[in-house]
Design a protein that fits this description.
- By secondary structure, the chain is mainly α.
- Helices cover about 95% and strands about 0% of the residues.
- The protein has 1 helix and no strands.
- The chain starts with a helix and ends with a helix.
């Protein structure tokens, strides 16, 4: 009788350990995906900022050329 209780307690504990392991792995994967998404968003943001700066430079050149022609 006592042996059965111990076996069932051991099985129960093993199930809990397995559950927490799988939860841990799931959270690690989720965290890894979040980090990857953040890095992709930062790279995209940098690219957009570079394009914006280039557009500003181009606009200034066009304005300067237009002002020269207008005089």
């Amino acid at each position: 009788m006592i042996l059965r209780r111990r076996r069932s307690a051991v099985k129960s504990m093993q199930c809990q350990v397995d559950f927490f392991r799988s939860e841990s792995e799931t959270l690690r994967r989720k965290n890894k995906l979040e980090v990857q998404k953040r890095q992709e968003a930062e790279a995209l943001n940098e690219s957009i900022m570079k394009d914006y700066e280039n557009l500003k430079k181009y606009t200034k050149k066009l304005e300067a050329g237009y002002l020269k022609k207008a005089k």
